[in-house]
Amino acid sequence: MRYWSLLLLMSAATASAASGPIAEASAQSAQSEKDGRSFFLACEFKRAARAFEKAVVQEPERAVLHYWLGKSYARMAEVSSPLTAPKNARKARRSLERAVQIDPKNEEYRRELIDFYLNSPEWFGGGLQRAAALVKESEVQESQLADSREDHSGASWWIEWAVLRTSGAIGHLARNQ
Question: What three-state secondary structure class fits 59?
Fold first, then answer.
């Protein structure tokens, strides 16, 4: 009995040691994300950007972190001096583009990036042509999705016709017997 208890304790300790750094990094990222959203809602965009940058370092493939980081930099660009606005706008564009790259089907990320393109001059990384290209890319993806869906309307008509035909044939057979 003691052998099994010792073995169980050893395996639990090993599992907790192995998942410790990963769980800690995830917890730190979650806390940074929470802090970033709080700072963003309080209009403390610089602090929000720093918090989201920390979270992105911990989890670089989470689109939502890039999205919020981009939004933070975009708001910083809006309220900052003419000297720092271009730098913040470029960071915003890169972060928003990364969010869309990671999760291209997320319409909220696409809308935010399109809005950025429309409201930013070309030398900030925006422009009407970029917005139009993103809208067109979105429309192409939607049409490809629609084309990939099979049209079953003909199949349902055929099944309905076959059922009616069969039931009529069965009724005909029943009357003739």
Answer: coil
Q: Give the pair of three-digit tokens for residue 9.
A: 């304790």
Q: What is the DSSP letter of 127?
A: -
Comparing CA positions, the residue from 68, 60, 50 lying closest to residue 109 is: 68
Whole-number Å distance between alpha carbons of 21 and 59: 13
| pTM of the model as a whole | 0.65
* Domains along the sequence of the chain with CATH: 27-142 (1.25.40.10)
Residue with tokens 């950025």: 116
Query: Pick from 93, 160, 85: which is nearest to 131 by CA?
Result: 93
Question: Per-block average pLDDT, block size 10, for the chain (177 residues)?
Answer: 44 48 76 96 96 96 96 93 90 95 93 85 69 74 52 50 52 49
Give Cα 58 distance to the centre of its chain. Answer: 17
Q: For residue 74, what are the CA distances in angstroms to 40, 96, 120?
A: 11, 9, 9
How far is Cα 119 from Cα 111, in angstroms, rounded to an integer? 12
Relative orientation angle of helices 85-102 and 63-79, to the nearest 10 degrees: 160
Q: Which of 84, 93, 79 is nearest to 121 (CA)?
A: 93
Give residue 17's pLDDT: 45
> What's the confidence (pLDDT) of residue 120?
74
